[in-house]
Amino acid sequence: MAQRNRNRRMSRRHFAEHLMGAAAMAVPAIAFTNSLTANAATLKKNERSAILLWMSGGPATIDIWDLKPNSVNGGPFQPINTSGEGQISEHMPETAKLMKHLSIVRSMSTREADHNRGRYYMHTGYVPNPTIEHPSYGSVVAHELGPLRESLDIPPFVSIGGGSAGPGFLGMTYAPFVVNSNGRIQDLDMGIEPQRAANRLELLDSLEERFIKQDRGIAASEHAKVLKKTQALMTSKQMDAFKVEQETSQMRERYGNSNFGRGCLMARRLVEAGVPFVEVDFGGWDTHSNNFDTLQNNRLPQLDQGMSALVADLAERGMLENTAIVWMGEFGRTPNINGNTGRDHWARSWSVVAGGAGFQGGKVIGKTNEDGTAVETDPYTSEDLMATTLAALGISLDSRFTSRSGRPMKIANGGRVIKGLLQQA
Predict the structure, then answer these.
(1) Which of these, 48, 41, 44, lies nearest to 393 by C-alpha position?
(2) What is the pLDDT of residues 125-182, one digit of tens each?
(3) Which end of the chain is more exposed for a tag (fewer CB within 10 A), N or C?
(4) What are residue 161's DSSP bridge partners?
(5) Within a 10 A sphere around the Cβ of 169, how many other Cβ atoms?
(6) Rounded CA gap, 80 and 359, in Å?
């Protein structure tokens, strides 16, 4: 698994270096506010998108979404009421006000409690397999919805603050386009004189075409597709969607002066521009020690501000009805508290959150027992969550993919829709 990840990153670095040497031109700073607004109106009418808030490290959901105040496992945090069903942590007060838009699935029971394996499983719906690499959420959504966005120059899958999981057998066309929360895109703005850049592009195109005609395999044609897309991106006005500094100071303050807050604001801008899938990576949840101090004084304040601002902003703009939001990590953390006042890896009983688009808001789905050690209702898996998310976006679960070896693959690994999480037809 680690080797495949390294190979994927290496191929993208090679592409960036190839592009840097072949062509680079300054991207003009053109105001994009009106274009964003126009795209938001179109999105509201007929286009759905998704934002995945990825909590890298495995968050202690028992301290956030499914508190156990009457159990020895409960810890010091107290539950508070929300605008929806159920209660959540006292350290998520702003999000609590908006839970009418979001639902909690408290009956997740998954099979991977290792970081790398859990990350892969929760992103793809499949356990790691040495013979095949499966496409992630972002790549599947980009593959299904990206071709419908004819005016979109920005890649259909953008990952902010981290590399996400890759496209698997769908190919590099659907790989995550990675940026940091300040919108910096490495090697895209080199300041080379435009005519010189155009000459290099023309030469590169001819070399690419000749190489592909020699039947060198799929890698060459995939490389050419990504290059063409990047060339269009370099000169597109839509590039301003990455520039959160164009927002008012009040709006930036609303989301918070943190990488996660800026990432959430950028995600909203990218969805306005028509990007079908955006992932925002927020790490630091591997709390084997000092769990409660870390959550109370660091992770939860940033999460509460950024997540609540995103939900409220989308709702106010009339975009939430077509923008799915999914919050999750690799797994949860142990109900029992260890000797370092921390919690360890736990996949048997934990929570995820979803809202917007075709999801119902304000619901609590499923239940764990009094001490949080087991799911008491129907357990749900990664493939179930993925299937439900795709259904919320209007993507048919009857779709099938074919791997490069010719093997038929079910979308979302044949997962079932989580009962009660989708809006009624």
Answers:
(1) 48
(2) 999 999 999 999 999 999 999 998 988 888 899 999 998 999 999 998 899 999 998 8
(3) C
(4) none
(5) 16
(6) 23
